[in-house]
Amino acid sequence: MQTDSSFTFVLFGGTGDLAMRKILPALFEAHRAGGMLADSGKIVAVARHVADRAGYLEWVNEHVKPHVSKNGLDETAWASFLDRIDFVKIDLGKAEDFVLLRDAVSGLPGIRVFYLATGPSLFVPICRALASVGLNENSRIVLEKPLGYDLKSSNAINDAVGEIFAEEQIYRIDHYLGKEPVQNLLALRFGNVLFEPLWRREWVESIQITIAEELGVEARGDFYDNTGALRDMVQNHLLQLLSIVAMEPPHSMDSDSVRDEKLRVLRALKPIDPRDIGKVAVRGQYHAGVIRGNAVPAYATEPGVKPDSTTETFVALKVEIENWRWAGVPFFLRTGKRLADRVAEIVVNFRAVPHSALGASALRGGANRLVIRLQPNETIRLYCLAKQPGEGMNLASVHLDLAFDRFFREGQMEAYQRLLLDVINGRLALFVRRDEQEAAWRWVEPILNEWAASNKPPKPYASGTWGPAAASAMLAQHDTCWLEEEN
Ligand code: BG6
């Protein structure tokens, strides 16, 4: 894909973790691939702890280089990538410093992208300072999650940012929407006739969406302890995945058609009655344990975490969607840190056949199941029953696999790379609109409130397991179990 969309990409939080691990590596990959970024495009990093451009490039060489090109670094491309980078030292607390930024970017061609890879408390001050020097014109702004702490704080940020930037200029990033298999889910659902007729309550018994991580809170204990899994993963990534799984076919793939349909799902989520929370929501916190042979510490002893913390590192939920397509079908969502495996997948369990001439085994639910593995090893697997070879009619479960790396030679694009290119090229479809975000906060808020008021701590689980037993018990009440518990 050749582009001539020129741009100036201003990166706030230029020496932060996200810049180091995701944003700069993604821009480098786009640069290295050739043709994705206009030659005239510039990156202007903003940070406080570095003196000048030479110092910043030193930091980039030391910290970003190890995160790029896992299959060997192209040194020539790396050198020309560094040529794109400029640097401005700004104290974000001082609005007058933004004059320096204006001077650095004025005269540079193309659209200006301001990427706010900073804490949410800086979003509004940065936007106001940008406006004070006239930089809100001809520009787009990218806001990282978490956008706020609850509905009220997220509305306050959105209101204030909305006074400076129009909604079409605001790109709220949720990197799960940039993952290739999530895009593929849209292709699978809306590019084929096979699945859509079955994609409804008449044929689907239940759906599971899991994002499980082996990692703990790493160096983010302080942030995470004030956030928890519900805000960190459910309000955004899991509800976004749910809305893509459950949405109606959009009229087109333009940004508002897709986002309108996702919004309808979020608005149709059955509100959680605080009295039912014990039945439909499980929260857990990891204790010490062993992951892949290595002993790992308890959450409460991680740096930055309060020893008596009641923050959840695991959440499992039963969610219902109140519309004709999905009424009565349970959606089980689950996420957690320090679980037994790193896996993100969507499992669609179809109903059993209504009558079986082939014996009782064909009447068992779960004979047909679609498993969409988002990571690792992106695959879509369709389970069916087949006759076992030999005498008699004995059925066994078999599967059809769609393994993307067998069909497509080019590697998958990293989520951040796709999303950054979308911002530069003005494509909003994979970014969260304000009304979607509000609907998601509105739905999670009763759970947040109930847990905050409750004097029951989260349920403990040993690191390296699949979370508290209560998460399995919740599914058992619906005669089902998590995928890894099958057999
Ligand atoms: C981030 C969360 O949004 O997503 C992290 O803040 C989490 O806590 C991460 O680890 C997971 O993303 P991925 O792409 O590694 O599954």
Short synopsis of the structure:
The chain is α/β, with parallel strands linked by helices and 487 residues long.
Verbal overview:
Catalyzes the oxidation of glucose 6-phosphate to 6-phosphogluconolactone. Its EC number is 1.1.1.49. It is built from 15 helices and 17 strands. The chain has 487 residues and is an alpha/beta fold. The radius of gyration is 24 Å and the shape is globular. Helix 6 (151-162) runs antiparallel to helix 14 (434-453). It has two domains: 7-144, NAD(P)-binding Rossmann-like Domain (Rossmann fold, 3-Layer(aba) Sandwich), CATH 3.40.50; 177-414 and 432-486, 2-Layer Sandwich (Dihydrodipicolinate Reductase, domain 2). Bound molecules: 6-O-phosphono-beta-D-glucopyranose. Residues 175, 213, 232, 344 line the site of 6-O-phosphono-beta-D-glucopyranose.
